[in-house]
Design goal:
The complex is a heterodimer of chains A (486) and B (447). By secondary structure, chain A is an alpha/beta fold. Chain A has helices at residues 31-34, 51-62, 85-91, 94-97, 109-126, 138-155, 172-179, 197-203, 226-235, 256-259, 328-364, 385-389, 394-403, 431-450, 452-456, 469-474, and strands spanning 130-132, 162-166, 183-187, 208-213, 239-244, 263-266, 286-288, 300-303, 308-311, 380-383, 410-411, 420-423. The longest helix of chain A is centred in the C-terminal third of the chain and has 37 residues, at 328-364. Chain A is globular. Chain B is an alpha/beta fold. The chains are: A alpha/beta (486), B alpha/beta (447).
Chain lengths: 486, 447
């Protein structure tokens, strides 16, 4: 497992193949008689590998990964909860997986019913009035939500140029706002880790289109002044955007819609257990209050009591955010999860996510600096400043954790905490696992005292050691066919 | 009901004691009374796994899938055969339950697979570099347009009518807020009207978009469109079907600056439209303008080959509002599907599939010529999709669907002038019997 794996191109044996087609069964014609020669391909540098070798190659590659199915994955802000296997089976039912997006509506009534029911469930969980399931990911949801905000202001002929974002916000927030053409204004956090109300007031004005907020925020702290914030933003006819990345903390306890948010996205690959897939696919459904519903993107799903229908054009709609209805296969998984948990299960999930986080925080706060010592929600942020003062950085501790079989927490985020260590255990981990994680960190702290080099040069047991990122950026080698010399 | 919480009541008690509270409720005490939900969520009671499976399977059974009906639908998503090995590998938990490979030392599997994916997309398109994936075809085009704008400092973008209507809609919905001015180039005989294109090009044009093969399956005059774009210093963005590139000359050879598109034909189920796979490849000059993740090869401290996410200074988690794009989560697992598909099929297999698609589409079109009443609005070279005009098309399509044949997509929805015109796609999966059935049914209905 620890040996280097050749690239698929290095395994190529011209003449072999991993797949055979049946004979076409028709009289073949010469493509050159029908397509001008300049359009017919000559060189095609794809590898030639037998099926068994392809399967072994990717199986060996998979074994070089850490994953939820392998071990604890306390990556803050990412909600790496267990991905139930039944979700995978349901998404692969031929009645879902083998549907073409342009089939006659009468042949996809089950799929549309599932989506409509999921929209309803998301409305109830979040307190919003309507949902679109179109967006393909959280950031895509943000872009959708911001275009809705823009459409709202355009309709009212409001001159709005700025989006306010707390300094603890996710990087996608300012990036999405910029993509909508808004100027981004950063709002400071106060000493308790919430939005600094004075700084917020100082930046309020008629040009403010809205505020993007994660609640609980990226420090894992519930924003106690959320009602006041909503009042202030609405006072300048701004809209409040809820970044749903941390929804796993509050299901059944409170709802963004009740907190005063006008528009939000949900990361189903976080809260609703759809797998992260090594970086995707996700889905980022967007929910809105009544006053934004007319602007939702198309297609929308309508039900007349008998039949489901796709509405592909609507006056006032911001248009369409992607091709086809959405990442349907991902939505099937989320729907399966919500069906299985039901109302009480969802609340239990959030309750235990918060319990697990507070337990870990209680056990770890004596070892690290805890910049905001309040009950956290689903995650919390420590600072490795005391260890850094001894010459061992947070990054080193993170890397040493890999040797103990754990994924590292999120590090150096949020940006407002020095040497940040952001831990999100999720509800699907047992006390036993959490205890083992604490013990590993305690051992590492001992190592910092007795043998700091061991930590500073970690990891030692992984398939590769620390990688030269500077070299990768200086001499980009990103395409096997055009590798830099040397 | 299961919420997948493993802790026992006793463990919960111990944990609460360590925290120093008497109940979980106390951990939520700071939520202000005014925003608390003081009632249970109004959702059905949770179900056991067997009940869940029954309920969801019932919904699936209400659909008629392309395993029950014969699928001649295309328009950006196609019914290709998916080799069994792909699903088995995708179901390895080490792949699908991993996150974005931020900790490179324990993510080499994902990172190397991304590197291989990027290289394979370069091999197909002929471009210098590709990223780790985009959401899907339409959003990939929108990002390509944004790249061309930043690179050229110009804002006018020409989008021919022959580009997928939904790709154009996505671009029109997303891009104007970045200052893009989009103009539609009309078509002539199912391809971009070159004379009109030349008139519309000016020194403010950032890019010309062309789909290859286009929405109607037609092969556009890429060399002439490219030359026209270059004359005014505009970029050429090619939206390509990657599987068609098993037969067709790679866009790079016609001078494409950016190639993007939908990777679903590469071993990904149609799943009613997603999740699928956007891809984006470009010339080296555009490297620092690329959106999204890129994996690079480097060395580790033990001097072994290894892979990392690289050139991250373009990305939102570093650059925030100055990032090249807001994309974070992409379609990594679907890119892995495509990587496995291309590895299994290899040069021989990809050429063979692309060729059979071409052959079978041309067979069906020849056979349809014999059906009295049908006609063909467009002439000229096509790949595996073509347009046929059928009297009372909507009615006929409905009737054929009832007989178990999804015979094509009515185009009037997007092209009012193409009433009664139907877009028909034929993949390697269709058999001669299925194609003959198509003609028979149609002949019967028109007789």
């Amino acid at each position: 497992m620890n040996g280097p794996e050749p690239l698929i191109f290095e395994m190529s044996q011209p003449g072999t193949t991993g797949f055979t087609l049946p004979e076409p069964g028709i009289d073949e014609i010469d493509p050159a008689d029908h397509i001008p020669g300049k359009f017919l391909r000559s060189h095609l540098p794809l590898p030639s590998v037998a099926e068994v070798d392809v399967v072994r190659h990717f199986t060996r590659l998979s074994r070089k990964n850490h994953a939820i199915d392998v071990g604890f994955y306390p990556l803050g802000s990412c909600t790496m909860k267990y991905n139930p296997k039944v979700n995978e089976d349901m998404a692969r039912l031929p009645g879902f997986a083998a549907l073409h997006p342009y089939q006659p509506e009468s042949t996809v009534q089950g799929a549309l019913a599932l989506m409509k029911d999921l929209e309803y469930a998301l409305c109830e969980i979040t307190g919003m009035d309507a949902f679109t399931l179109q967006p393909a990911a959280g950031a895509h949801g943000e872009l959708t939500g911001l275009l809705l905000i823009k459409a709202y202001h355009d309709r009212k002929k409001n001159k709005k140029t700025k989006i306010l974002i707390p300094d603890a916000g996710h990087g996608t927030n300012p990036a999405s706002a910029a993509q909508c053409g808004y100027e981004v204004v950063t709002i400071k956090s106060d000493a308790q880790g919430g939005v600094d109300l004075e700084d917020l007031k100082a930046h309020l004005g008629p040009e403010v289109a809205g505020l993007m907020l994660t609640n609980p925020n990226t420090l894992g702290l519930f924003e106690p002044n959320v009602e006041k914030i909503a009042e202030l933003i609405h006072g300048v006819d701004g809209l409040l955007y809820y970044d749903g990345a941390n929804l796993n903390a509050i299901m059944g306890w409170t709802r963004p819609g009740d907190m005063g948010f006008d528009v939000m996205h949900v990361n189903v690959h976080k809260t609703f257990s759809t797998p992260h897939g090594g970086g995707g696919p996700g889905a980022g459904p967007v929910g809105v209050k009544k006053h934004l519903e007319p602007f939702l993107p198309c297609p929308r799903i309508a039900y007349d009591g008998k039949k489901y229908k796709l509405i592909t054009k609507a006056k006032g709609s911001i248009g369409t955010m992607r091709t086809f209805v959405g990442s349907f296969g991902v939505l099937v998984r989320a729907y399966t999860y919500i069906t299985q948990l039901g109302a009480e299960g969802l609340k239990e999930a959030s309750s235990h996510a918060v319990l697990n986080a507070n337990y870990l925080m209680a056990r770890l706060k004596k070892h690290f600096l805890l910049p905001y010592d309040r009950f956290c929600k689903h995650e919390f942020v420590l600072s490795g400043k005391p260890q850094a003062a001894k010459g061992v950085k947070t990054l080193d501790i993170a890397k040493r954790l890999l040797d103990y079989g754990f994924h590292a927490p999120t590090v150096y985020f949020p940006l407002i905490v020095e040497e940040a260590i952001m831990i999100e255990p999720t509800e699907t981990e047992s006390k036993k696992t959490l205890d083992a994680f604490v013990e590993a960190l305690e051992k590492i702290l001992q190592e910092i005292e007795t043998n700091p080099e061991l930590v500073k040069t970690a990891p030692h047991t992984t398939p590769v050691g620390r990688l030269d990122e500077a070299l990768a950026a200086r001499k980009p080698d990103i395409n096997f066919f055009q590798r830099p010399a040397g | 009901m299961s919420s997948y919480v493993p802790n026992t009541a006793l463990q919960v008690k111990e944990m609460l004691a360590t925290i120093g509270v008497g109940s979980i409720d106390e951990l939520f005490a700071e939520i202000p009374a005014g925003v608390r939900l003081n009632r249970p969520l109004c959702l059905p009671k949770g179900l056991s796994e067997p009940e869940t499976v029954r309920k969801i399977t019932d919904l699936a059974d209400q659909n008629i899938s392309t395993q029950e009906a014969v699928c001649f639908l295309g328009g950006g998503m196609y019914d290709h055969y998916i080799p069994a090995a792909i699903n088995h590998l995708l179901l390895r938990g080490d792949f699908y339950t991993a996150y974005t490979p931020y900790q490179a030392e324990i993510s080499q599997g994902t990172l190397q697979a991304i590197y291989e994916f990027q290289s394979l997309m370069c091999a197909l398109t002929g471009m210098d570099q590709a990223n780790a994936s985009m959401y899907e075809g339409g959003t990939a085009l929108a990002e390509a347009v944004a790249m061309a704008q930043t690179q050229t400092g110009r804002h006018r973008v020409l989008l021919p009518e022959t580009v997928h209507p939904e790709y154009r809609q996505v671009t029109e919905s997303v891009m104007p807020s970045l200052g893009a001015r989009l103009a539609t180039v009309p078509m002539e005989d199912g391809v971009t009207d070159l004379a009109r294109l030349n008139e519309m090009l000016d020194d403010q044009t950032a890019a010309v978009v062309v789909q290859y093969p286009n929405f109607f399956g037609r092969i556009e005059e890429l060399d002439e469109i490219s030359a026209a774009a270059k004359r005014v210093g505009a970029m050429l963005i090619v939206v390509a079907n990657p599987l068609a590139l098993g037969l067709l000359t790679p866009p790079a050879e016609f001078g494409a600056d950016i190639v993007c598109g939908e990777g679903q034909p590469l071993g990904i189920p149609m799943s009613f439209g997603g999740p699928s796979l956007g891809f984006l490849a470009a010339k080296t000059a555009l490297l620092r303008k690329m959106p999204g993740r890129i994996a690079g090869c480097t060395r580790d401290v033990r001097n072994q080959r290894g892979f990392v996410l690289t050139l991250q200074a373009r990305e939102q988690h570093i650059r925030r509002e100055k990032a090249t794009s807001n994309i974070c989560t992409n379609q990594a697992l679907m890119a892995l599907s495509a990587t496995i598909y291309l590895s299994l099929l290899g040069e021989q297999g990809i050429r063979a599939v692309a060729r059979q698609c071409f052959q079978k589409a041309h067979y069906l079109r020849r056979e349809l010529e014999k059906v009295p009443g049908v006609s063909f609005p467009f002439t000229g070279p096509f790949y595996h999709e073509f347009v046929v005009k059928i009297p009372q098309a909507k009615k006929v399509l409905d009737r054929m669907a009832k007989e178990g044949v999804f015979a094509g997509i009515a185009l009037q929805r997007w092209y009012p002038s193409l009433s009664d015109c139907v877009l028909v796609a034929v993949t390697e999966k269709r058999t001669v019997e299925e194609m003959n059935l198509y003609c028979q049914l149609l002949g019967g209905l028109l007789a």
